[in-house]
Amino acid sequence: MSGITHERLVKLNRLFTSYEIIAEGTEVFLCDMRYDYSRWSRRMVEVYGLPGEYMENAGEIWEEHIHPDDRAGYHKSIESIFTGESVGHDMQYRALDKKGKYHTCTCRGIVLGDEDGNLEYFGGVIRDHSPDGEIDPLTGLRNQQAFFKDLAHYLEGNETIFIAMLGTTHFSRMNDLYGYDFANRILQHNARYMLEHYGNIGSLFRLDGIKLAIISRSITPEEFREHYRTISDILQGGYLLDGKWVQMPVNCGGIYVNDVETGMNGIKTGVNTVYSCLTNAYEDSKYNHQGDFCEFEGGMTVRRQNKLDLINMVRNSVNDGCRNFVMYYQPIVNAKDESLAGAEALLRWIGPDGRVVGPDEFIPVLESDAMFPILGTWVLKSALEEVKPLLEDYPDFVINVNVSYAQLQQHDFVQNVLSALRETGFPARNLCLEITERARMLDMDRLININFRLVRQGVSFALDDFGTGFSSINILKHLKFRTVKLDRKFVMNVLDDSKEVNLVTSVTRMARIFGATTCVEGVEDARMRAALLNSEVDKMQGYYYSVPVPMGVFRNKFCSGQNETEEQKSV
Ligand code: C2E
Ligand code: CA
Ligand code: CA
């Protein structure tokens, strides 16, 4: 029998009961550290076949149940608690029940000190996830479903959490290089590594595909940034696995969520909103920061909160039949005579305070959101409906509609475009889809196929933002474009630098080789236009002609004359 005194036992039981009351569906453990004497929830005793509710040395007994791969991490954590190095843990491991099945458990505990600062109690809760559900069979980590469930739980409880998403670039190369089985071993290895080293900062999940996520209630983004440096050094620097050298670039994005209830719209931030923002931070790391850790709206609590609220409201609008969205139109003119050639349709969202919110504030975040294509379809249909009446007087008017990478990824993209044309009775030849070079990330064959099928039906394409990012003429070689749009940054210094005019001429000549015309964006004043007239550019667009405006204004401003001759149609 243990040496615990009666008085201490009464105290243990009292504390235990209070823990149980607030534990809500989780199991409780409480250890009197002076005597290393613990009490555990009845259910744990039954499910895991523990010696009894009261145990001496419970830490060691429990360790026997822990999966051999997870044991070292657990041991280290318990040791550091009993030596006073750490004040608690929040970790995940697999534990063997009495029927011989492993359950994934998330365990959170803290140490309470007495008035003299000595360790007195170690207590906490264990959440026992069922042995079959919500576990990724390959890595043993909890899966995406579990991730969403936990996230919802934390948001509901207004808990402050930090979430990180980690992934590797070109993982498919591992498949090609080493075969599927070995690539799986790499994934397993990475997951184990993460669990061993970072299992005690929060819960780890395997998301769909090869990404891992951590949700932590204790760590700050700054602390995580440090951890991530080590992780990326190890994975990026390379390691030996089964005699093979494995090296891969890693990316990581994070988001710190607190004050979720202070949302100005009174609507709670939803899991999908947080997930979209997290994905956005991850993509920022992958595409713009060579794998460095990126935090969503990093550091600035107020800005991040506003942004989260905005994204949440915009998402809700989409789910509410794309309410509060409007299309604005910006004229595109023929360079030579400034006659109206068409327009670009640009999306706007109207906030509850009537503020017109530009797409740069929400599209980059929502682009990879599963609901984005719904908005894309709404954009296309709205533009076609609004522009159609103009075609009576302007039969050659071309409406340019922006299409994002995520939309092109949809398997039914071509059918969607064709049905929008059919439903609105809009002639295909008057529609031009603007795609950016980001589309190159799509499988080229797929892109060629989309381009070919739509061009065959009369729809045309424009290559947007040419001159930014990784421009390549490869895409021009493979796809059919009506227009190459030169980005504003490309011509911004056209007045000070005559080379820029020559550059526009060169690009225009090159575009011609591929049967395309050019359009410069961002023509802001008469001097810029005059300078650009010395190039051979075909079309112009910019504030000099007009800022984007709603269709009513557009019609009055640019299409008021009925049945004008070509020369009269000047803007
Ligand atoms: P973008 O396709 O490059 O669109 C041109 C942007 O430049 C527009 O910003 C336009 O207002 C702005 N702009 C036009 N002329 C000038 C000028 O002279 N000076 C300056 N400084 N800016 C000028 P906006 O409307 O804020 O759109 C930003 C981006 O959002 C667009 O860039 C496009 O990538 C995206 N976007 C807009 N509407 C849609 C949409 O319906 N679907 C998708 N997928 N993306 C959209
Ligand atoms: Ca565009
Ligand atoms: Ca553009």
Structural class: alpha/beta
CATH class of the largest domain: Alpha Beta
The number of distinct helices, counting runs of at least 4 residues, comes to 20
Kindly report the average pLDDT value. 89
What is the CATH H-level superfamily of the largest domain? EAL domain
Low-confidence stretches: 563-569
Largest sheet: 8 strands, mixed, barrel
The N- and C-terminal alpha carbons lie at a distance of: 96 Å
Give the names of the bound compounds. ligand C2E, calcium ion
Q: How much β-strand is present in the residues?
A: 15-25%
Could you characterize the architecture of this molecule?
There is one protein chain. The chain is 41% helix and 23% strand. The strands form 4 sheets. The chain has an 8-stranded mixed barrel with strand order 14-15-17-18-19-20-21-22, surrounded by 5 helices. Strands 3-2-1-6-5-4 form a 6-stranded antiparallel beta sheet, sandwiched between helices. With 571 residues, it is of the alpha/beta class. Strand 8 and strand 9 form a beta hairpin. Helix 4 packs parallel to helix 7 and helix 12 runs parallel beside helix 14. It binds ligand C2E and calcium ion (2 copies). One calcium ion (CA) binds next to strand 19. The site of one calcium ion has 4 residues, from loops.
Keywords, please?
571 residues; alpha/beta; Beta-Lactamase; Alpha-Beta Plaits; TIM Barrel; 3 domains; 23 strands; disordered C terminus; binds calcium ion
Give a brief outline of the structure.
The chain is of the alpha/beta class and 571 residues long. It is built from 20 helices and 23 strands. The N and C termini lie far apart (96 Å).
